[in-house]
Sequence to fold (86 residues):
Amino acid sequence: MTSARLWRFVDLGRRMDFLLAGFGWCRMPEHLIEAPIAAGQLKAFRIHEDPTPREGLTIYAAHARDREPGVAGKWLLEELKRRLSV
Fold:
């Protein structure tokens, strides 16, 4: 059974709850699904012609056009760039 309905979650914990309950599929960080896959609770699969870039999902940051991020926001963006750059 398939559906056009998408589920959106604020945190990965809720997403994992739905996965373990059998409510569909999604992309998850590998370190979070290793144990459930090993225990047979989840099954990994590959999507043929997957449009996701090989380096992973794209992360976007947004702010109001008339206001630049403050000191903390700028630090966060730079830190994310540093930590996530390949």
In short: The chain has one domain: 12-84.
